[in-house]
Amino acid sequence: MSSTETTTGTTSAPAQAAPAASSIPTLRDAFHQPKAVWAIAFAATVSFMGIGLVDPILPAISSQLDASPSQAMLLFTSYLFVTAIAMFFTSWFGSKVGVKRTLLVGLAFVVVFAALASTAGSVNEIIGLRAGWGLGNALFISTALAAIVGATAGPSGGAIILYETALGIGMALGPLLGGLLGTVSWRAPFAGTAVLMGIGFLAIAILLQREAKPAPVSPVAALKALKNPALRTLALTAVFYNIGFFTLLAYSPFPLEHAAAAAGIEFGAMGIGWVFFGWGLALAITSVFVAPVLTRKIGLIPTLLTTLGLLTVVMLVLTVFHTSMTGIVTLIVIGGLLLGVMNTALTETVMEATDLPRGVASSAYSGVRFLGGAIAPAVAGPLAEATTSGAPYLMAAVSLVLSMIILAIGRRHLSHVRQEHHLTAAEEVEAITAGDEV
Prior knowledge:
It is built from 19 helices and no strands.
């Protein structure tokens, strides 16, 4: 979500709808942008590539650094835990130092910690360095959308579409780049990220102008926002949903590699990269093209409950077919299709559910949901080691059921969320973008 002070409650939506209808963003609006916007879009692409970049090299890190799969998966936990905590305070930090400085500080953190990770000698070192990487990414992704809208010369919807395009490309190409560089060494994806983010840092430093002083934000504004029952319901729903999301993302490379080996195929980092390229591409496509259609046709809450139910089925089937290479590859990609719908629909619901400033609501919601992402890898590995390799998927299914229960119980706080949802074109694209900021 943008860090603007625009409210998104139901009382203000009708007033916004009329003027926006005449300014529907076009592809020309999206790609006819100043150099500063392209610089931010490039950095955003690399930033989102970093989410899936590590996936293909987890087995290699585990074997070459003499670490258990559980230890290797903690690369996600440290990254997401620090991201979660930082998210509660990014809107305050941005209001103190400004958008450009926040972007540059975030990028600098990513460059330094990604470069150091490429030189690490143990998995514990990488786990610690990924925490610093998570802090940088939190600062960058929480500010980039506001920056790209502020730097555009035309309609904001066009800039948002460009940013969303960068996000989709990054989500899809991250695992592929990780797999490609991972065939050289597990260190190469970290070094490659540092170089690309360094280019992004220089581009933004040179091309992006300093903005006017932002409106002040309280350092505890995001924490106070969780007193809102609607936001709290959606944040708790997102916690358990993200446990399912990151079980699929962080744990699956290990049973995938084992299933390939059992089939007599040497999968390696490149094979895992291609599978999660399909996952990221599926997620990007449904978040952009399918989720908006579903939310308009059947409403936000029905879309959420239906998608959570289908994801639960996918996880249950994975508990049975995780030893089949064909089965697990197919189910990972199907999971990506459903996750794209879920991300967008959940964030659209957050936008509709409260009258809180978008930046504050986004910080609160993102901080809580990333905690779920941090929990999943920390639990999935030890659970698989103590029981069976299918148990983490069963845990994910249970977590998704809990997410549905929380949403169903808290639905009374969401009664004002319209069943047939009509965000303006720019708001809809903004929701898609924010929803995919994993």
